[in-house]
Structures are given as structure tokens and as C-alpha cells.
């Protein structure tokens, strides 16, 4: 069937160009806007959201596995914390690596490898015979989880520009559902079956990604970037049929067309070239390959360096604050270790599961708030307002920490940080061109993982050392600095087309 469609598309393009050079043209963005968000995008959302929920479950898993393994294998506190740290270390490597792979070889290959690694290593973790093997397998899981931004960018590239904010917020809800599902699963599985069964069950969503992989389409933006305009047109026709709409009249124009126009080569000639010829005869692409310019240098180019550096600070601040608030919820509520004995630590484990389960629902209002404001106020104003509001919620805790007040203020701060985390994952892919989009988001996500690694080493150590005020002030500084960086972002992306190359940024 695909071969029949291919044979139909190519002659149609050639006939239109032979009839006259003035035939109409359309871009990927124009085609997506014309077709709208429909059934095709819903299926893409379901697949990408499954991957996002899988990552959330593996991250939430860390709250339960560490204490259980420590008790089973008589580990030291340092050894217990290392189980979490190796996952973040793996994500640090994976987020950078898979971004480069997906930008070079395609989005589908990127998330296929990550899903395979996550599901296999996650399932084998349940059979780890000793501490060292568990660390190795969980580190490999982290490497696989680093591919999460690839799925986010893949889904983003199918959304019409006017709807990107709203639907990326909907995509983010899968993370919250993943955390709630994992907390529910741990609550039911851990007391009766133990931590190994929880590890095995938590790897199942990643396996589903592999089962349905054969039905996933490649990003038409990526295909156009590679000069495979005909393949991109076939996917757009499938979207139109599934959505029961029509493509704009004319010929699909790839992002490379602009490069040819700058060199005074007629756009029509681009479509008459085969994908292989397009790659070979593009001087700019050839020069880039010869020079071997790394994606990191492109991110730090004159056009992108300000946005990139500010984005790194914001991702660090978001991760540091988000995971810190999760930890503070358990450290600052209830009986204080600094004023009472440690006997309360021997309470039944179910209490911890219930508390984590309930606190996870704080993210739902944050997601709803993001959906309301992201396309009305814009990305920058939404993020900055939520950062400053989170700092306002935390400020009283530097002086007063009563149970009811502490719980309410931490709940409010977590709503705000969830909102900023959601919006920054919308903004980040929008500021980078297609050629380095997943690399840019992947590296920024890696910086965020550093924040996740540093957070427990700093904040939790201060709280357990009875320096709660110092911990709150530290969070205030990081959150306020992140909000200021958002204000300094050079441009707003609300309603704008996704750039195809660096020049368009």
C-alpha cells in the first residue's frame, strides 16, 4: 500500500512542477494547521504519553526501592543513596546521547533503542543477585530514561502551531498519571510481594512501547530535513486521511528549500532530486559534515547561546526544586527529627506509601493551571509567574513550620513548580530548529538531571542536620534565579512556527 502511495505522490509533484514554476507550495507547519489536531495526533499522543508515564514510574520507583533494598541487604545510607544517584547519572548520559542519535538517524530509532534498554534493564533489575549488579542495571535504566525528551519532541512535531501549548500540557499529564500509578502499585505490591515484583511490574509500560513500535510514523519534519520530501508527503497524506481533512493544494516544500534559494538554485529542482542526491549536492550539508561540527557547538552558536545557557539554568532549577519539594514534603511534615526521638521512623511502611500517593495529586492542579495560562499568557510569563509564586509559598517556611501550614504551603509550591516544569518542556523544543531539536532538549534535560542529583545531597543533608531554614533559603535562591532567567529569555514562542534551521531562530 505504501509503495502505491509513493508512486502516486512523486509523479503528482513532478507534474505540478512541469505544468509551470508558479505552482503553489506549502510547508509542514501550513499542512498541520490546515489538517488540524485529529485522530492521528491522538494516537501519537497515546504512544508518546505511554513512554512519558513509563519514565515517571521509573523515577517514582526510587522513593520505594532504596529503603527496601537497604533493609534487605543491610546497606549503609551512602549505598542506599547511590541507587538513586546512578539512575540520574545514567540519565545524564542518555539525555545527551539519544538526542544526537534521534537528530542524526531519526526520532523512531531514538525512542526504539531507549525503550528496549529501559524495559530489558528494568525487568532484569528484579533478578539482581547483589548490590553491584543492581547498580549497573539501574544505571542502564537511567541511560534509557534519558530518551524521554525524544518522545516529547517527536509528539511536538505533529502538533499544529496554535494548539502546541494546550496539547503539550495534555502530554505532560501522563507524567502525573505515571507517578500516581507507581505510588498505587507500590502501595499494593510492596507489603505483600516485595521490591523485586515492583521492579518487574514497573518495566511493563516500556515493553508496550516496543509492541506498538511498528505502527509509529517518522516525524515529517525530520524527513524533510533529510531531503526525503516525498516520504514526508506520504505521512502527511496519512494524517489527512485519518483526520478526514485535506492537505493544502500544491507541493510540499522542505526546510532545505531555503538553503537552495539562498544559493540561487530553483526550489523546484530540490523536489526532482532523490534523497541521496539531495544530501550529496547540498554544499552546506556537505561542508557541515566535513567540518564535523558537534551539536553542542551549534547550541552555543551566536544565534542560540543566550537561549541555551538560560534554558540550562531553568532546567537545573526546575529539577532541583521539583525533587526537593517532594523530599521536603516528607522531611518537614509530621514529627521533626530535630525535636523528637527517631522512634516515629518505625511506623508501618504503608503510611509512607499513602502519603506519597496523596502528595502526587498536587501535580494535577499544576497541570490544569498550565493548560489555562500557557497559550493565553505565553510561555515566558507563565513560567516566570509560577516561579515567583512558588518562592512566595516557600518564604513563610523559613520562619514558621506548623504541620497544617507546612503541608499547605508545600502543596501550593509543588503546584507552581509542576506548572513551570510542564511549560519549560513546551518552550524548549520550540526554540531549537529541527536539525538539533532533540539534542538541545536532551542536553537541557541532562543539566536538569544534575539538579536532581545535587538536590538530595544538599537539601536533605541540611534538613537532617536540623538546618531547615538554610534549606528553605537555598530553595528560594534557586527558584528566584530560575524565574529571573525566564524573564531574560530573548523571545516568546507562543503561536510561532517551529524553526527548521538555525538561521530561522
From TrEMBL:
Keywords: Membrane, Transmembrane, Transmembrane helix, Transport. Gene3D superfamilies: MFS general substrate transporter like domains. PROSITE patterns: MFS, SUGAR_TRANSPORT_1. The chain crosses the membrane at residues 31-52, 82-99, 135-156, 168-187, 193-213, 304-325, 381-402, 408-428, 440-463, 469-491. Its main location: membrane. Residues 44-494 form the Major facilitator superfamily (MFS) profile domain. It comes from the Eukaryota. Signal peptide: none annotated. The keyword Iron does not apply. SUPFAM superfamilies: MFS general substrate transporter (SSF103473). InterPro entries: MFS_dom, MFS_sugar_transport-like, MFS_trans_sf, Sugar_transporter_CS. GO terms for molecular function: transmembrane transporter activity. It is found in: Membrane. Pfam families: Sugar_tr (PF00083). The keyword Cell wall biogenesis/degradation does not apply. Residues 1-21 are annotated as: Disordered. GO terms for cellular component: membrane. This is Organic cation/carnitine transporter 7-like isoform X1. It comes from Cucurbita maxima (Pumpkin).
Amino acid at each position: 500500500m505504501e509503495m502505491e502511495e509513493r508512486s502516486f505522490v512523486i509523479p503528482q509533484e513532478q507534474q505540478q512542477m512541469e505544468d509551470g514554476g508558479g505552482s503553489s507550495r506549502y510547508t509542514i507547519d501550513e499542512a498541520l494547521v490546515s489538517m488540524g489536531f485529529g485522530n492521528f495526533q491522538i494516537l501519537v499522543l497515546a504512544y508518546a504519553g505511554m513512554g512519558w508515564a513509563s519514565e515517571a514510574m521509573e523515577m517514582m520507583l526510587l522513593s520505594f526501592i532504596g529503603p527496601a533494598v537497604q533493609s534487605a541487604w543491610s546497606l549503609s545510607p551512602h549505598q542506599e543513596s547511590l541507587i538513586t544517584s546512578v539512575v540520574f547519572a545514567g540519565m545524564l548520559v542518555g539525555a545527551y546521547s539519544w538526542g544526537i542519535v534521534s537528530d542524526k538517524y531519526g526520532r523512531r530509532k531514538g525512542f526504539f533503542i531507549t525503550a528496549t534498554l529501559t524495559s530489558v534493564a528494568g525487568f532484569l533489575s528484579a533478578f539482581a543477585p547483589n548490590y553491584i549488579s543492581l547498580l549497573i542495571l539501574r544505571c542502564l535504566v537511567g541511560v534509557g530514561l534519558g530518551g524521554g525528551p525524544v518522545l516529547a519532541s517527536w509528539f511536538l512535531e505533529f502538533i499544529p502551531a496554535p494548539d502546541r501549548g494546550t496539547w503539550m500540557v495534555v502530554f505532560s499529564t501522563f507524567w502525573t498519571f505515571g507517578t500516581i500509578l507507581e505510588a498505587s502499585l507500590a502501595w499494593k505490591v510492596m507489603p505483600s510481594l516485595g521490591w523485586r515484583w515492583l521492579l518487574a511490574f514497573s518495566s511493563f509500560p516500556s515493553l508496550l512501547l516496543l509492541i506498538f513500535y511498528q505502527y509509529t510514523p517518522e516525524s515529517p519534519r525530520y524527513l524533510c530535513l533529510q531531503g526525503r520530501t516525498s516520504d514526508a508527503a506520504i505521512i502527511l497524506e496519512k494524517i489527512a486521511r485519518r483526520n478526514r481533512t485535506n492537505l493544502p493544494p500544491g507541493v510540499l516544500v522542505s526546510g532545505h528549500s531555503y538553503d537552495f534559494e539562498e544559493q540561487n538554485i530553483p526550489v523546484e529542482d530540490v523536489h526532482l532530486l532523490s534523497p541521496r542526491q539531495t544530501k550529496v549536492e547540498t554544499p552546506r550539508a556537505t561542508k557541515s559534515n566535513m567540518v564535523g561540527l558537534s551539536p553542542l557547538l551549534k547550541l552555543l552558536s551566536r544565534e542560540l547561546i543566550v537561549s541555551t545557557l538560560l534554558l540550562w539554568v531553568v532546567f537545573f532549577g526546575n529539577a532541583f526544586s521539583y525533587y526537593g519539594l517532594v523530599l521536603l514534603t516528607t522531611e518537614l511534615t509530621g514529627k521533626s527529627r530535630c525535636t523528637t526521638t527517631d522512634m516515629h521512623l518505625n511506623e508501618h511502611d504503608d503510611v509512607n506509601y499513602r502519603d506519597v500517593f496523596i502528595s502526587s495529586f498536587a501535580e494535577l492542579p499544576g497541570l490544569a493551571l498550565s493548560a489555562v495560562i500557557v497559550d493565553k499568557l505565553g510561555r515566558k510569563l507563565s513560567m516566570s509567574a509560577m516561579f515567583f509564586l512558588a518562592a512566595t509559598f516557600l518564604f513563610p517556611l523559613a520562619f514558621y513550620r506548623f504541620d497544617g501550614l507546612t503541608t499547605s504551603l508545600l502543596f501550593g509550591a509543588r503546584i507552581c513548580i509542576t506548572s513551570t516544569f510542564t511549560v519549560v518542556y513546551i518552550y524548549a523544543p520550540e526554540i531549537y530548529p529541527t536539525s538539533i531539536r532533540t539534542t538541545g532538549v536532551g542536553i537541557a534535560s541532562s543539566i536538569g538531571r544534575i539538579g536532581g542529583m545535587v538536590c538530595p545531597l544538599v537539601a536533605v543533608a541540611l534538613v537532617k542536620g536540623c538546618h531547615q531554614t538554610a534549606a528553605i533559603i537555598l530553595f528560594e535562591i534557586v527558584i528566584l534565579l530560575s524565574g529571573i532567567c525566564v524573564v531574560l529569555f530573548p523571545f516568546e514562542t507562543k503561536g510561532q512556527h517551529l524553526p527548521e534551521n538555525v538561521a530561522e531562530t
